[in-house]
Amino acid sequence: MNDVFWEPGLLPTLASLVFGYLLGTIPFGLILTRAAGLGDVRKIGSGNIGATNVLRTGNKKLAAATLLLDALKGTAAAALAGLVSPDLALSAGFAAFLGHLFPVWLGFKGGKGVATYIGVLLGVAPPMMLVFAVVWLASAKITRYSSLSALIATLVVPVVTYAFDHEKMAILFAVMTAITWIKHRANIARLLNGTESRIGSKG
Asked: How far apart are CA 74 and CA 98, in angstroms?
């Protein structure tokens, strides 16, 4: 069945974009590591503010909290805007995703977006989050690469969404997938030359 969207108009759409973006810019990885006395997470590892780099501090609980909070800001943006209109849920979720990747407060240098991508899925289409999780787990079991599993899952989500005739949502996630792949270009290069770390690797 085709999605039925109430067209909210320019001002509500702009408001949802600003709201979602500002929510997405909250750098939980940076906040949590500083609060824990671990310094600036941008000065270790990849310099990323996401959960994977937070894990390089050696604090698994902080990394898990970062992952959860980075996801939930996407969920919150989509869910709150969705109380007004499904269209606004999409725009706010997308803006939160962009806010995480390009936070104005940090010189537009943010995370890679996977956690917030998952959070937006939960906010606008919970069954698609389950699709993502199943694909990620299956790929991770086979390949032992976390980054590759995430990239594969982001490819599958728009296809499955489109197959269920949610065209507008499928286009949104296709764009988010393309951006996610661009943000993971260093990981892709390492996957191609065989130097990407596998799950459980100490290297």
From this structure: 10
Confidence of residue 7 (pLDDT cuts 50, 70, 90): low
Mean pLDDT within 17-33: 96
Q: Reduced to 3 states, what is the DSSP secondary structure of residue 146?
A: helix
What are the tens digits of pLDDT across the range 162-173?
999 889 999 999
Cα pseudo-dihedral 182, 156, 52, 108, rounded to 10: 40
Give the pTM: 0.91
